[in-house]
Amino acid sequence: MVVLGDISRRRALRLVPGAAATSVLAGCFGSSEDDEPVRAEIEPGTEIVFRATSNWTGKAPEAIAGADNPTLVLTEGEQYTIGWDEGDGRVHNMELRGSDETYVEDYATPVTPDPGEEQFIEFEALPEIEVYRCNGHGPSHPQGSQEGTIVVE
After folding, report:
1. Total domain count for the chain?
2. Could you list the mean pLDDT of each consecutive 10-residue stretch along the chain, which spans 153 residues?
3. Is 102 in the same domain as 130?
4. Which residue range is the domain that position 139 belongs to?
5. DSSP string, 83-115
6. Which of 34, 60, 99, 132 matches a 20 to 30 Å C-alpha distance to 19?
C-alpha cells in the first residue's frame, strides 16, 4: 500500500471528489466583479448596436462590445440610436421603458426574427427612460434576461 504522508492512496482518492465539489461551489456562491454589468458612458449621437440572443450582447460602441446587458449612461437631452442587427433566429424587439413599465414616447420596434433598419430607434435621452428591453418572447422568457439599465444624467 502506498502511503502519502499520513494518508493512504485509497483515502486520498476518496477525498478528491469532495474537494473538487467544494471548490466548484465556492465559485458559484461567491460574488465577483464579473457579476456586475459593464457600465459605459455613451457619447451623444452614437449608434448603440446589439446582438439579440438570450441577452443583449453589445457590438458597438467599443465600450460595450461583448458585454451582456450593459448599463448605458446617456446625456440628458442628447440624441442616440439603439437597436440590434444580428439575432439568433428567435423573435426580438427593442423597447425603451420607464419605471412604470410603459414605453417612453412610444419607443418600441415591432417583434420580428429578422433584424433590419426597423429594429433601430432614434431617440432623445429623457430622464423617464430607465431600461432597454426585448418583450418578444412572452411569459416563457426569463424576466430581465434581455434587459439592460439606462442612466440619463
Report:
1. 2
2. 51 49 36 69 98 94 97 98 94 92 91 88 97 76 76 98
3. yes
4. 34-152
5. EEEE--SS-B--EEE-TTSPEEEEEE---BSS-
6. 34
